[in-house]
Amino acid sequence: MMFKPQYQAAFIGGNPTQPPSPGLRPPSPSGRGEGEGKKGERRGYSLLLAVLITSTVLSAASALATIIISEIRQTRQTAGAIQARASAEQKTERVLYLLRKTELPLDQIAGATGAAVSSSQDPQYFSIQENDFVSLPISVDGEVSDIAPRITTITTWKPAEACASASASWIEVTPISWNGAEFISQRYPYSHSDFTSEGQLRIAFPAGGTPVEMRIRALYCDIDNLAVEDIPGRVRIVASGQSGDVSQSLQTLMVRRPPASGLFDFVIFSESEIKKGL
């Protein structure tokens, strides 16, 4: 039996740099073969892929949890907002009931309901057709009777385009007071030239009674953008409701009292039934 060496023998005096013969390979310095190195590299890639997948899943779970918590909070706030608005509407309804059924001053109504109730004197704007009128009810609270000399102001007056000229535009103002037994009224006709010469029209209510209403009629042609100030005939109601950490506020602007009834500019007498629309 002959022994065949695995590596070429090196002799003294030989060339140490001579490569081994083909087909012969020296052993790996680490003692492992090529297959074992590839397996180690695969293990490294698997660990990195697992870390990436885990991070993605955690990020998605965190985002989903944030969305769910936000939806739950929004649902609770929506329910609280509905309850808060219902509470504000309840206060507003109580104020409306006291305004209709009692003659209490506004401060007492505010104290009884918990809402902020005040008289509004903001400008009111109207467009009036020819021979038609607007009725402005006046508040009967004590604060109105203290107004001296009970004057309202018309600050804007614009004749409609259908008017032949600005001088053809006229209005008729009828302030009405109540003295406890009867209505006291006076009629004041004004032309647009009266308005432009003075810059505004100041109209006083009849003395000897409490102001209750003012009527403005358009004569001869239509009127646009008629503004009236210093009319405390409307009431501003601001009611708020609270439910948890959600609050709602409701603001209402309404007429203090309905127009006075029984005040007609003309009466038609007929011996037979009047059929409308003919």
Explain what the structure shows.
By secondary structure, the chain is of the alpha+beta class. Helices cover 31% and strands 29% of the residues. It has four helices and twelve strands. A hairpin with a 4-residue loop joins strand 5 and strand 6 (183-185). The radius of gyration is 46 Å and the shape is elongated. Residues 142-149 have low confidence and may be disordered.
Instruction: Count the DSSP helices.
Output: 4
The main pleated sheet reads as: 5 strands, antiparallel
Number of strands: 12
Structural class: alpha+beta
> What Rg, in angstroms, do the CA atoms define?
46 Å
Order of helices and strands: HHEEEHEEEEHEEEEE
List low-confidence stretches: 142-149
Q: Distance N terminus to C terminus?
A: 142 Å
Looking at the structure, what is the overall shape? elongated
Portion of residues within helices = 25-40%
Average per-residue pLDDT, rounded, comes to 76
User: Strand fraction band?
Assistant: 25-35%
List keywords for this structure.
single chain, 5-stranded antiparallel sheet, 4-stranded antiparallel sheet, 4 helices, 12 strands, 29% strand, elongated
Could you outline the blueprint of secondary structure elements for this entry?
Layout: H1 34-101, H2 106-113, E1 116-120, E2 124-128, E3 133-137, H3 142-145, E4 151-159, E5 170-178, E6 183-185, E7 188-191, H4 192-198, E8 201-204, E9 210-219, E10 223-229, E11 234-243, E12 246-255
Antiparallel strand pairs: 1-11, 2-10, 3-9, 4-8, 4-10, 5-6, 5-7, 5-9, 11-12
Helix pairs in contact: 1-2
